[in-house]
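Please go through this chain and its backbone structure tokens and walk me through the local backbone shapes. Keep your notes short.
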Amino acid sequence: RQGIEIPEKIRTVTFHEIEVESVELPFVQFRVRCSKGTYIRTLANDLGRILKVGAHLIALERLACGKWFCSDNSISIEKLKQIESNSDVPWISHLKLLDHLYTVYADAQMVTSITHGRRVEVSTSRELEENKEMNAKKDFSEETNQVQTKVLDTDHNLVAIGIVMWENNVCYFQPSKVFS
């Protein structure tokens, strides 16, 4: 805004598939299957630069993301407003959406501290071990230092999302989003 140019962050991304769906010059419609962190607007700009024609997006639609989102299974905001909350819509549980995160269970005292945004010590003998089987597939060790984590209370209600980190051989949870 003040004429200051900010250098673009360069990141490695993967294009699994790029398919041209239609060409009606000066417009080209294409479908991209790519890794997370890919900026499609930058792809359009780069293609225009390479072809020496200039390019930008006039539309962008996310068709899928991860294992849960697919546009074919989505509904519009207008339709969502018309649906009764007790209808037979196949809602996806918020906990299922977060099943890729490490899980820590918190007692009432920990929940109180977390809901006030405080960092809490996580006892490896209790909170982490209690959910050992579920967390076995997650990448968590002292070497990783920080791992995205969800915290559930003893009734399996979502309390917060944040990171578990090791500091001086002590394991802590630092909330970033608190839900209760």
